[in-house]
Prior knowledge:
The protein is α/β, with parallel strands linked by helices.
Amino acid sequence: MKKWFVLLIxxxxxxSGASRYQVATQERAFYNDSRTLSSVIYYPxxxxxxxxxVGARPVFDGIESQxxxxxxxxxxxxxxxxxxxxxxxxxxxxxxxxxVERGVIVVAANHPGSTSGNSIPAESxxxxxQTQDISALINAVVQDPQWQQRINHDxxxxxxxxxxxxxxxxxxxxxxxxQDFVAGCRINPHSPSCQFYTQANVNLATLSAxxxxxxxxxxxxxxxxxxxxxxxxxxQPNSLRQLNAPLLIVAPEHFRADTAEANLAGAxxxxxxxxxxxxxxxxxxxxxxxxxxxxxxxxxxxxxxEGETFICASERSQREQAHRQTIAAVLAFIQPWLTNHNKIGxxxxxL
Length: 351
C-alpha cells in the first residue's frame, strides 16, 4: 500500500501536467471470423486542428479529439480496451484520452452480443468470444499497413472494465470453471456475475465447458489491467499464479453508489500473485459505474425512464476523482513500457 501511495502522488502530478501529444481518433471495423468489431482507434497526433467532441451520448460526456488527424511519428505502446456488458468503444474514452496524451495507442471495439444496443444475455454469457476478440484486434492492428510500424511490439497490453476486466485477465491466462459458475449462480442468482444471465433464464448448463474453461493466453501481451473485473469468484487460483504477465486490479469501494452492496472483490485477487505480480488498488468512495464517463446534468432524467439511475448516481466530483486516481494508477503501472522518443519501425524492450 505504501508503494501505491508514493506512485499515486508521483503520477497524479504527471497526469495533471502538460500533455506530450494531442488526441486523434479513427473509426475502423476489424474482424474476429464472422464477428464484426466496430472499433475506435485513439492515437497520438501532433496536429493542431480544432478538436471536435466524440463519443458523447445523452447520458455520458464525450472527449475532445481530432478525427482522422495524421498520426504522430513513433512506435508507441498498444493497449486493447474491452468494455463491460452493455458498454461500447467509448465507455473508457476518458482513460484512452489520458493514455494517448502520454504516447499510447488505444484500440477499443464494440463486442457483438454484449455491447450498447446489442446486449443479449444468451450471447454475452459466451465469455470466450470477448476474450478472443482481444487477440483478433491485436492481430488486425499489428498487421495493418497504417499502424504496424507505429506499434512497439514489445509493449502490448490489455485493459478492461467489468466483464471486459475478466476478459483482460483471461487474455493473460486467468481461467474460470463452468461447473463452479453454474453452481454459484444456482446458489446466488442475483450476484453481479450472474444476474444478467439468470434474469433472462439462460440455461448456463448448456454452455460448452471446453470453451468456457479454456486457456486464452495471448503471449504477445506484456501487461493487463482490470477495472473492477467480473467473474472474480470463478477465477481459478492456480491459473492466477501462472499468469503470463503482470496484472493491475483497480477496484472501487462499492458496487453501487445508492446501496450498501458489496464490491466485486477484485482486490482479493492480489493474494494469488505467483509467476507475475498481481497488484491491487481500492478507490475509497468509488463504485463500479465510476469507471464509465462523467454524466451530463440531463442524464438522470434519461436513465429514470429505464430504471437505471444508478449508472450516474455518483456526484460528478466523485467520478472525476475516481478517473484521476485510475489514470494515475494505470500510468504508474505501465511506466516500464512507456517510451517517449521511439522512431518508426524500431522495437524497444521494457525498461
